[in-house]
Design brief:
With about 1000 residues, this protein is α/β, with parallel strands linked by helices. It has 36 helices and 30 strands. Strand 25 and strand 26 form a beta hairpin. Helix 8 packs across helix 14 and helix 20 packs across helix 24. The longest helix has 21 residues. It is elongated, with a radius of gyration of 36 Å. The two termini are about 60 Å apart. It comes from Streptomyces niveus (Streptomyces spheroides).
Length: about 1000
């Protein structure tokens, strides 16, 4: 059989709220059994030491804490639906999400994939309580129960397209589910599979059954293979694992806990009783699993037994194992059962054992057995080649094989053979010839549905990072890859783990800081790159970034290599040496080109894809390369020649900045043949260029007219008539290079607009030398396209100020200005902060490029911390014998869920009165109907019905019926009419007004059984 990897785990068992606590409980040999919580049933009312009919002989069991807590808002499930759902579904939803995260996958990235869901479940006591309460059966109660929904709900909420099924083979259910998942992976029905098991003991029914069948331990504890073994103790729990074909897990660099080498299932058939174990069938399923795994029994170092702690069950299991292992008397196989710690978790028993074995192989130690000190001598374990562990067993280096059994009460048996993860799993990912990663700082990101959830999970991550020494790169990369997909985006930069921990805690404690470091993009981002021109250079520009960022270093080296044949000297070395020659035109232009190209390509390698490009004068050369209008080598040849030719021009030229419009200066320009209009950077920002003596003379005249002037520190009169002597020589070089049409919209400062299927060919670059730089017009045309981010590409910010003067939107309405380099002091931290800002705005970076190849390793992060604020349970617990249960499910805290005001309003917003409520009766009727359908105590006009309130087709039908009962004039309204207008509550109200809806009189709330729990809330709303 092809091996299958376990790549993700999450679980929750008695005394162990998460996977780490579960392993700790096992290693301590602890006991999760306690008295039956009154939330389940009154254990004393049902207890009888003699085990009388209708009673149980124990008041103890393995119960998990807070089974009623559910983060319904996270999954966009309405309170009413959450209250109707089997809590086993709720537990599985949360555990599945956390297991996928543990596998190093952002759960939302699985949407639409052929991922399978296989769930083992043998009890549905919630359905017994609620589906028999006929007056309160609703559509939500129907869909909230049933075995199929334990798997189907996971597939629905994660949008998974692979097989989805629930399995009930009693106690072996979840290991049989794993068997089906493995086969589905090997047949390529799915590429990954979630395997779960769940059990909640909500009624004493099975406890009574076990008692009456003589199977119940009076102390509520399983004692596998112990001399004190006297029956079953019930247990609860949930566990989910993520499976992948081993070759796929290794290819994706995932952490592998353990490998399933072989797995088999069979049946007792007609044996000595429907519920009795069968030794022969058990030894046959063991043989089948060994055969499928390709191992000999002697290869198996330890086995996690079914181990119920019943006399007959333990004996049969020992004999079945002994059939294969009896010749190992010199080195007996270790044997244990997690039921000694938790009780018998029934439908979750197989997954509890599977997780225990996987963790044992992962940590390379097998926990001791709680039963070892009082071993049942009658079982003759040694004669069967078996032993109980009195102390943890340290596993030797190298491959280790383990077994796992799970036997169903009805005779369906399963056995799995597992092996430790191969040594070559989860190695750093190879660069595969791509540019090396690393920018000099890490960007830690985290997303959540709302600010409270963000704050809660920031603290979870901070606590985990502070608890142990963790390298920053793999930690931050794991956050980038896994903690993604929610509306609120948090990003913070750091250079070491201690700084990150401090930043996370500070952000969680300071709402204003949290708001600054978070974004909530509502539309797809559109990014523009603005490339600076001559005048922004300085010695050692971007030198610190070059030293700290291998990624930037790679692209600056690439530009330098392209320039070297044409410059005769390394531009890179000149920059890094701090040579003042960088201010000489011959070197300024190629140096700025190299920096602009390297910064632009670095950002593109980081996943920042520009949708718009603009370059100021020589900045257009780097922009043209990124737009694929020029090849790198061709652009290098052009810019080197341009700078050298201009350097050869005689001195005596200069440039003058004037605070005036270009047309105001036209008279002076027309009568001065040695002066030209070099640049128009804005409505009142103009640059004249030409002969210095002439500039001085007309400058004085201009100032006399009330305009402000400033001499620019340049070596030559760029973009002026004085450039004409170099044009012919440059034209010959430009003809060799040529040029094409930009593949990304490029806003030309020669044309003052976007180039529309126009080639940046030789004639363009020749004209570029002396033409006016029409930056103001080009930038205005770019801004009209609505970019969300303007990223200035250059050694220091120059263009951002110009653009801000061009574009003066309302507060917060304009594009964000992003600066990867701030100036001489900029390091990799500035680039990281620019990437963080872009991410908050909706950009999806290529995170691997942020990190060096050796940092691209799987690193576990704490899974999502769900809110426990909302709790749902039966209205009353189960009562004593002969008393009917009250089964309606309700929220157990005082009020139903209030809706918070969203941060941004939709286009259609209702007028509100002084109390914040709607100011008209139609809106009042709609809000009331929405509240009743979902069970909310408060609904805002801004709430979106699908995304915020969790509406589905069933709820839409009910909403339509309630609207028809409350509003006149909508009798002909159909669901098809409603569907396009259900984006928000406010949109729905506006549509109904247009449709002619009116309120005929006082709103009727009705008094059906499903509404009674909500009527008082609705009347006072």
């Amino acid at each position: 059989m092809e091996p299958v990897a376990i790549v993700g785990i999450d679980c929750r068992f008695p005394g162990a709220p998460d996977t780490g606590a579960y392993w700790d409980l096992l290693m301590r040999g602890a006991d999760g059994v306690r008295e039956v919580p009154r939330q389940r049933w009154d254990a004393k009312e049902f207890h009888s030491e003699a085990g009388e009919e209708g009673h149980t002989n124990t008041t103890q069991g393995g119960f998990i804490a807070d089974p009623d807590a559910f983060d319904d808002e996270f999954f966009t499930i309405s309170p009413r639906e959450a209250a109707a759902m089997d809590p086993q579904q709720r537990l599985l939803l949360q555990s599945a999400w956390r297991a996928v995260e543990d596998a190093g996958i952002a759960p939302r990235n699985l949407a639409g994939t052929p991922t399978g869901v296989f769930v083992g479940v043998m009890g549905n006591e919630w359905a017994q309580l609620h589906l028999t309460d006929y007056p309160n059966v609703t559509a939500q109660v129907g869909s909230g129960n049933g075995y199929c929904m334990t798997a189907n709900r996971i597939s629905y909420h994660l949008d998974l397209k692979g097989p989805s099924l629930a399995v009930d083979t009693a106690c072996s259910s979840s290991l049989v589910a794993a068997h089906l998942a493995v086969n589905a992976l090997l047949s390529e029905e799915c590429d990954q599979a979630l395997v779960g098991g769940v059990n909640l003991a909500l009624t004493p029914a099975l406890s009574i059954f076990y008692t009456q069948a003589g199977l119940s331990a009076p102390d509520g504890r399983c004692k596998p293979f112990s001399a004190e073994a006297n029956g079953i103790g019930r247990g609860e729990g949930v566990g989910v694992i993520v499976l992948r074909r081993l070759r796929d897990a290794i290819a994706d660099g995932q952490r592998v806990y353990a490998v399933i080498r072989g797995i088999a299932v069979n049946q007792d058939g007609r044996s000595n009783g429907l519920t009795a174990p069968n030794r022969w069938a058990q030894q046959e399923v063991l043989a089948a699993a060994y055969r499928r795994a390709g191992v000999e029994p002697s290869d198996v170092v330890f086995t996690e037994a079914h181990g119920t702690g019943t006399g007959l069950g333990d004996m049969m299991e020992v004999k079945a194992l002994g059939h294969h292992h009896a010749d190992r008397t010199g080195k007996p196989m270790a044997l244990g059962s997690v039921k000694g710690n938790l009780g018998h978790t029934e439908g979750a028993a197989g997954i509890a054992g599977l997780i225990k074995v996987a963790l044992s192989l992962h940590h390379r130690v097998v926990p001791a057995s709680r039963s070892a000190a009082k071993e049942n001598k009658q079982l003759k374990l040694r004669d069967h080649g078996l032993r109980l562990l009195k102390a943890p067993l340290r596993l030797p280096a190298g491959p280790t094989v383990a077994g796992l059994s799970s036997f169903g009460m009805g005779g369906t048996n399963a056995h799995a053979v597992l092996e430790s993860a191969p040594g070559h799993a989860a190695r750093p990912e190879a660069a595969n010839g791509a540019a090396p990663g690393g920018i000099g700082a890490a960007v830690f990101t985290l997303t959540a549905p709302n600010a409270d959830a963000l704050r809660r999970n920031l603290l979870t991550q901070a606590d985990a990072a502070a608890a142990r020494r963790v390298p920053l790169g793999p930690l931050a990369r794991a956050g980038n890859r896994v903690k993604a997909g929610h509306r609120h985006r948090f990003a913070i930069t750091a250079t070491d783990t201690a700084e990150l921990v401090a930043g996370l805690r500070e952000s969680a404690a300071d709402p204003e800081l949290l708001a600054r470091l978070s974004g909530r993009p509502t539309a797809r981002p559109r990014t523009a790159f603005l490339f600076t021109g001559q005048g922004s250079q300085y010695p050692r520009m971007t030198a610190a970034l070059y030293e700290q960022s291998p990624l930037y270093r790679h692209f600056l080296d690439e530009a330098d290599a392209a320039l070297l044949p044409h410059t005769g000297r390394s531009v890179r070395d000149l920059i890094l040496a701090g040579d003042v020659a960088v201010h000489s035109t011959r070197w300024t232009q190629p140096a700025l080109f190299a920096v602009g190209y390297a910064l632009g390509r670095t950002l593109m390698a980081l996943g920042v894809r520009p949708g718009l490009l603009l370059g100021h004068s020589v900045g257009e050369f780097a922009a043209a390369v990124l737009a694929r209008a020029l090849p790198l080598d061709g652009a290098a040849q052009l810019i080197a020649a341009r700078g050298a030719l201009m350097q050869e021009l005689p001195a005596g030229g200069g440039m003058l900045s004037v605070r005036a419009a270009g047309e105001d200066l036209q008279g002076w320009i027309e009568r001065e043949p040695l002066v030209g209009l070099a640049a128009v950077n804005g409505p009142t920002s103009t640059v004249l260029s030409g002969d210095l003596e002439t500039l001085d003379r007309i400058g004085a005249e201009i100032e006399a007219k009330g305009f402000t002037t400033r001499r620019l520190q340049v070596s030559h009169a760029f973009h002026s008539p004085l450039m004409r002597p170099v044009l012919d020589r440059f034209a010959k070089i430009a003809a060799e290079v040529g040029g094409g049409v930009p593949e990304i919209p490029l806003y030309s400062t020669v044309r003052g607009r976007v180039l529309d299927d126009e080639a940046m060919d030789a004639s363009y670059w020749v004209e570029h030398i002396s033409a006016t730089v029409q930056f103001g017009d080009a930038a205005a045309a770019l801004l009209a396209e609505g970019p969300t981010h303007l990223v200035e590409i250059g050694p220091q910010p120059v263009l951002s100020g110009m653009v801000r003067r061009l574009d003066r939107p309302a507060e917060g309405a304009g594009p964000a200005h992003v600066l990867p380099v701030h100036g001489p002091e900029s390091t990799g931290r500035a680039l990281a902060e620019a990437l963080a800002e872009l991410y908050r705005g909706g950009v999806e970076p290529d995170w691997d490029a942020v990190y060096a190849p050796e940092e691209r390793v799987a690193h576990p992060l704490p899974p999502y911390t769900f809110s426990k604020e909302h709790r749902y349970w039966a209205r009353n617990p189960v009562r004593g014998p002969g008393t009917a249960a009250v089964a309606a499910a309700v929220r157990t805290d005082p009020a139903l869920v209030p809706r918070s005001e969203p941060e941004t309003a939709p286009a259609s917003v209702l007028p509100l009165d002084r109390t914040g409520g709607p100011a008209d009766p139609v809106a009042d009727a709609v809000l009331g109907a929405v509240r009743l359908v979902g069970g909310w105590s408060d609904v805002s006009p801004h709430d979106r019905l699908y995304e915020d309130l969790g509406f589905d087709s069933v709820m839409i039908m009910e909403l339509k019926n309630r609207l028809e009962a409350r509003l006149a004039g909508i009798g002909s309204l159909t669901v098809q009419d409603l569907l396009p207008r259900l984006s928000s509550v406010g949109d729905l109200v506006a549509f109904l007004r247009e449709f002619g809806a009116s309120v005929p009189g006082p709103v009727s709330f009705g008094d059906t059984g499903e509404n009674r729990a909500l009527m008082e809330e609705e009347r006072t709303a």
